[in-house]
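Record 1 of the preview.
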Amino acid sequence: MMPAVMRTSVYERLKQDIVGGTMAPGHALVEAQLAEAYGVSRTPVREALHRLQQDGIIERGERGLEVVAPSAEQILEIYEVRVVLEAAACEAAARRRTEVDLARLHGVLEASPKAKGATAEALTLANNQFHEAVWQASHNGTLIDLLERLHVHLRRYPSTTLTYPGRWSEALGEHAELVAAIDARDARKAARIGREHMTKARDVRLRMWRDQQGADGAGLT
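->
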């Protein structure tokens, strides 16, 4: 039997290939071919495919399992859940944060780059670090696990919402307001800020999707 670490490795490698765009939407996922490509038996590949299907990254189509194509509907579904979970994480962070959590949040916020001249990679990294610090401050393992899984779906959209005109400056203000609410242990305000923050991110993501579809000559379904 293949060790658990190897099964996890195949899952992570395959997930990265899909999220990173190596395997395009609609790409057929054949056990035998994947086993040969990764140099493993078909058992860990089968288990990895099962997990990825549960994650919603792949689905069963006419040709068998294949990579799911991103869509406007998927954006709405992801953010519908993420808005709720982020608000819950912000509320929990305000209730349970420690001084160490607070110091980490302030540190990430202070180290965040200004909008002018910052690269998309720098903005994405700073934003991810901030949200992860909020999640950790919630001290709720289930929330953290669910939010990390949702984040995998969003990574399939290569363009970050933070490069949209004015969005990063707005986001920085929202981050600062959220840290202040968590510092004050104002759980209700923290939840509201988190909910509004992710709702704005959703709206920007949809505008970017529409713009991209228009540039490609396709309609938004």
